[in-house]
């Protein structure tokens, strides 16, 4: 299975998701309502955050419903900005030719989304940039496909110039917007109900030198993209990600399920489902992280046991005492004396009795 992405693991970069929301807002859509309908709690500012593909499909449906615009996908693709693609966009713009840019897009497509793939194919004297949707459980809408093709045209205008127009465009679905809108946004009228989705280009256009080419800058951008791709391929599983976030949050305040889910770009329900697939759950991970931090804190003699209970956000000292006995088989005070026989600070007799006495 190396190199493959399981259907339930397909995700989309948060930059692309934010572009969908921004386009819908321009058309009168309500961000909060759309995110709620999609099961997405929030869109973090971290460009490396990923959103589950099916949640993005639900977001598309909510955006189309909220705008009532049959050409929503076309308008979204037309308005896309390089920042939505982060380092991938700058790698493409600084390429020597459009052919090189498309090859790099193929290479780094996963950094944008697991929901689609592009490939370059020669047919009938034209070079075709084919787009293939890679659905998870929920089918894509025609607007999603149109957004991908319109975005590709916008990308080509970034690298070639604003006057770029493709020789031909094919779409596998029927027209869903006025033909004039297709012509205005794409630069030509698509051929509908085709056998594939793609953009046809003459070879001379693919191989012409680009005005913003910069081999040195392109090399630096590509190195960054390769690092991000490697990190994405070797990213920790959901259980590891939740545990890491819990540990960070517990040092600053109580960690809540909704807060953790938001930070990994999922709804609480989706996070719980994904944890269940890894034979875990939120409560068990919270308990595990508290256990690990408790052992760390109890080795620090300047922290009283009541302070440790507070740091771990237990409701009271006795709740911490019971949890520690469950984790280690010993009372906290007894455990501390085994690793640090001479505490650095004195403790009140009541605290010693509370944490060291055997269970009744």
From TrEMBL:
InterPro entries to which the protein is assigned, alphabetical: AraC-type_N, Homeodomain-like_sf, HTH_AraC
Record's keyword terms, sorted: DNA-binding, Transcription, Transcription regulation
SUPFAM superfamilies associated with the record: Homeodomain-like (SSF46689)
Keyword Transcription: yes
Residues of the HTH araC/xylS-type domain: 240-338
Spans annotated as Disordered: 335-360
One Pfam family named in its UniProt record: Arabinose_bd
GO CC annotation terms, alphabetical: cytosol
One GO molecular-function entry: transcription cis-regulatory region binding
Alphabetical list of PANTHER family matching this protein: HTH-TYPE TRANSCRIPTIONAL REGULATOR GADX, HTH-TYPE TRANSCRIPTIONAL REGULATOR VQSM
Name of the protein described by the UniProt record: AraC-like DNA-binding protein
The organism of origin for this protein: Afipia massiliensis
């Amino acid at each position: 299975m190396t190199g493959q992405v399981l259907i339930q693991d397909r995700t989309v970069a948060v930059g692309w998701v934010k572009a969908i929301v921004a386009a819908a807002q321009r058309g009168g859509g309500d961000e909060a309502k759309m995110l709620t309908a999609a099961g997405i709690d929030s869109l973090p500012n971290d460009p490396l955050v990923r959103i589950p593909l099916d949640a993005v499909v639900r977001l598309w449906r909510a955006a189309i419903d909220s705008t009532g615009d049959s050409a929503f996908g076309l308008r979204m693709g037309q308005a896309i900005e390089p920042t939505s693609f982060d380092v991938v966009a700058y790698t493409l713009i600084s390429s020597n030719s459009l052919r090189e840019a498309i090859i790099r897009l193929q290479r780094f497509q996963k950094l944008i989304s697991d929901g689609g793939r592009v490939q370059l194919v020669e047919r009938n004297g034209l070079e075709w940039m084919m787009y293939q949707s890679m659905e998870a459980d929920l089918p894509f809408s025609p607007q999603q496909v149109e957004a991908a093709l319109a975005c590709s045209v916008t990308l080509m205008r970034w690298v070639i110039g604003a006057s770029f127009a493709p020789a031909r465009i094919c779409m596998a679905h029927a027209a869903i917007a006025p033909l004039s809108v297709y012509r205005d946004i794409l630069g030509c009228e698509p051929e509908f109900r085709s056998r594939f989705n793609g953009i046809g280009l003459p070879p001379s256009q693919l191989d012409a030198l680009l005005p913003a080419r910069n081999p040195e800058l392109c090399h630096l951008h590509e190195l960054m993209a390769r690092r991000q791709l490697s990190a994405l391929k070797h990213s920790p599983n959901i259980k590891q990600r939740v545990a890491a976030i819990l540990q960070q949050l517990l040092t600053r305040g109580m960690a809540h399920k909704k807060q953790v889910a938001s930070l990994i770009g999922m709804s609480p329900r989706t996070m719980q489902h994904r944890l269940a697939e890894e034979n875990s759950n939120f409560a068990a991970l919270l308990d595990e992280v508290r256990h690990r931090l408790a052992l760390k804190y109890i080795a620090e003699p300047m922290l009283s046991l009541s302070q440790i209970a507070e740091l771990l956000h237990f409701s009271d000292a006795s709740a911490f005492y019971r949890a520690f006995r469950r984790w280690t088989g010993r009372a906290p005070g007894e455990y501390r004396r085994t690793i640090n026989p001479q505490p650095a600070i004195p403790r009140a007799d009541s605290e010693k009795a509370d944490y060291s006495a055997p269970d009744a």
